[in-house]
Amino acid sequence: MTDWKDNMMLKKVNKHFLFIIFLLSFINVSSATVTLIPDPVFCARDQNGNSLAGGKLYTYASGTSTLLSTYTDYTAGTPNSNPVILDSTGCASVWLGNNAYKFNLLDSNNVQQTNYPVNGVTRYSNYSEVASISSNLASQVYASQGAGLVGYRQSSTANGRTVQDRLQDSVSIKDYGAKCDGSTNDAQSIQNALNSGAKHLSIPSGTCIVNTYGGNQVLAYISSRDGFEISGEGPSSIIKLANNAPATSGSNFPIIFENGSSDTLKNAVFRDFTIDLNGQNNLVSTIYENAFYFQGKETNVTFENLIIKNLVGTQGIRVGFDNTANFGQDIFVRNCIFDTFGLGIPGWPGADQSVLYLEADNIQIIGNKFFNPSFSFNLSIGNTAIEVHGQNNTIIQDNYFTYSQLPILLSSQQKPMLNTLIQGNNFIQTNYMFAFDNGPDNNSQSKVIVDSNFYNSTVAASSIIPIGSSGEGNHTRDFITFSNNTMDGSGNSNQETHIFKSDSTYLRSLMAYGNNISTFNGAFLYFSGTALNSPYTDISVFSNKFDSLGQTSGSYPSTPEFIAVVPSSGTVNSLSFRDNELFNTSGKNYTTTGFVIASGNINYINIDNNKVNFGSNTVVRTGSLGTNLYRNVQNAFFQNVPYYSVSQGVASSGTTNLASFAGYGINNYADYTINLFATDGATNNANNVYECNYTTTGSGCTLISGKGNRTADILLSYSGTTLVATNNYASLLTMSFIVTKMVNNFTNAFIWQF
Asked: Domain residues for 63?
């Protein structure tokens, strides 16, 4: 690709070329008996390219050994010495007489130089010959004249060619008639420049209007290329679609740059210019009006430092043709700005849109900005910033999204999607963060890492990361990692919002750790419906901070859970919730809270060492109120989990239920320890520790330590399948309890119900 060094070199070539024309035009040789050799200053270098300082130039009559003088200037008044001694730069002024010469060159030590002697060195015959050469060099009509007469060689090891050939490596669209004046239709000029075959096409500063012409829908067709670049001078180099650009036929509205499905684009770069699709003045509901639409098998294509704005059609950049045969390789989108698209355009007609639509292996989308002005969201209309169909190694990193409905869609409709990294992105005022495609294909969506992103929105959808949808194909979604992300839903009160949601969709394994999630009216994970990857689904949530999640009013869900794994059919293999911290800094008025709600067929549950920082009016439980709801929870291990009750007044001889096993059968429940506090409001308090067991024999609770005056006045026992606390004291006692340990295998879960 042409870089700034090449451009500087070309400027030097042009300067020397013009100097030759200037010199030939002003030397008056008609009054002299001598003339100049092709350059009147003779310079020589040795075989290593060094100046031949002190070199010796012998001049003879051509084809003989007879010395023949040259002269110091055009007057022929003073002959040069013979040999002519070259100065410290290896140069001397050498003017020729009327005869033909033989030149022989030695260095200062009389060492013969290669390529010498040379016979037939002559002067120009007359001024008219010089004038003819000058005219040919200045010609702008024929490619064989002008720069075509001047030689060029990059270095001693490079191939020689003409300056004309070298300059054709890069052409400007102005070379082919583009005006870039904001009114002239420059589309044909851009196409002619592309047809030149130059490896570099430059777009000058200015506004180059493009419109349909000659029945062409594609305004700039790029056929198969290998090694190609289009670049501008920055944001001021603008290609703009004309107002009300007409369709050529049906819905075939203009496309700026395109190739065909049989074309291949390799090693190509598009950078440093603006494409304005002028959506405000082209309000059409169509799948076209793209900036780039490449349908072939593209390899190593880079889009860099572009601005693509006012998109009303489908894609800003599309690479791929929805088939596996044209799946690309190495597609890079870096440091581009996508400004105002879809719903961001007033009067947008509602065409489905993906600003980036890429089908390839090794996709990198890094450092881009997707801007929209504020608008009213319409979730019934597709409006996507990035849609990737990546088989291997997709990186979406350090991008910025604002007012975009769906920033990222991960799709496997063409091939399995493997090894995807979503990292360091900012999502501001977006409905979603990303989504797994719900296509009918059976391709896997595997090894997705979502790390260190920031999300803040007051307009979140019902799920920020939807995992497919009901009726989708069999996607084996495994090794999904969600780590170190920060998500804030403050002010997001329009609806209940879960972070992850899987409702009768495929999910095989999810691991979430190190995240800081706050103030959403829903769960971090809501897993319901049929466990389609049964029995392999594994969910592990650890070392996170969850603050003020859940809904405190409304009917869905009925309990403001932080994690809900409630498959109605199928089997979840394992659920682990450990080492997390739960807060309520927003002061939600929780009355009942299930920070983990688990139901249905779950083989293994581990709830361990979680820290709960709630107010005194909070009940934290492993299930919701009710019976016959959460069955077949097997091999559960509850360790170091504090369960807090509200304070409960119990009258003399009165009872209160602590735990209910109704509907679960009589099957070897856990051993657990209860710290129970009781007070009569004065000094008669109790702090009792009970060890409880419930098995097929109906064992009860044993007081293993007691403290205070009321240790004998509280009895824990079972009434059928319910653990009951009885007040044997003469007046009301206010009781509360903490479950500090519950470890054992048991077949069915139970629900704390104090």
From this structure: 31-125
Indicate the pLDDT class of residue 751, thresholds 50, 70 and 90: very low
Cβ atoms 463, 502 nearer than 8 A? no
Instruction: DSSP letter for 620, please.
Output: B
121: CATH: 2.170.14.10
Strands 722-727 and 714-719: antiparallel
| Distance in angstroms (rounded) separating the CA atoms of residues 316 and 283 | 15
In this model, does residue 692 exceed pLDDT 90?
Answer: no
Residue 719 pairs in a beta bridge with: 722
For residue 37, the one-letter residue type is I
- Tell me if 591 sits within 8 A of 621, measured CB to CB: no
Distances (CA, A) of 635 to 239, 632, 661: 65, 10, 16
* pLDDT tens sequence across 509-567: 999 999 999 988 888 998 888 888 777 889 999 999 998 887 665 544 445 578 888 88
| Mean pLDDT, rounded, for 706-733 | 80
At 131, the pLDDT band (50, 70, 90 cuts) reads low
Cα 47 to Cα 629: distance, rounded to the nearest angstrom? 93
- Assessment of whether the complete model's pTM goes beyond 0.90: no
714 vs 676: CA distance, rounded Å: 9
Euclidean distance between CA atoms 448 and 394, whole angstroms: 9
Q: Which of 75, 98, 125 is the last residue of a domain?
A: 125
Domains in the chain, number: 2
Q: What is the DSSP string of 145-193?
A: SGGGGSEEESSTTSPEEEHHHHHTTEEEGGGGT---EEEEE-HHHHHHH
φ and ψ of 163, to 5 deg: -65, -35
Sign of CA dihedral 331, 334, 336, 338: positive
DSSP element (H, E) containing 136: helix 127-137
Residue 560 lies in a domain: no
Distance CA 541, CA 580 (A): 8
Give the integer Cα–Cα distance in Å for 596 and 607: 9
Residue 233 pLDDT > 60: yes
The span from the first CA to the last CA of the chain, in angstroms, equals 74
| Amino acid present at 63 | G
Please answer whether residues 752 and 651 qualify as being in contact, where contact means their C-beta atoms are separated by less than 8 angstroms.
Answer: no
Asked if 414 contacts 444 with a C-beta cutoff of 8 angstroms, the reply is: no
Cα 518 from Cα 457, distance rounded (Å): 11
CA 379 to chain centre: 23
Q: In this structure, is residue 19 part of a structural domain? A: no
Q: What is the pLDDT of residues 337-383, one digit of tens each?
A: 999 988 778 777 767 778 999 999 999 999 999 998 877 777 767 78
Higher pLDDT, 128 or 157: 157
Domain boundary among 88, 110, 125: 125
Query: Could you tell me if residue 171 is inside a domain?
Result: no
Residue 621 placed within a domain: no
- The tokens describing 381, both together, are 């209309």
Q: What CATH number has the domain bearing residue 693?
A: 2.60.40.1680
Tokens of 443: 């391709």
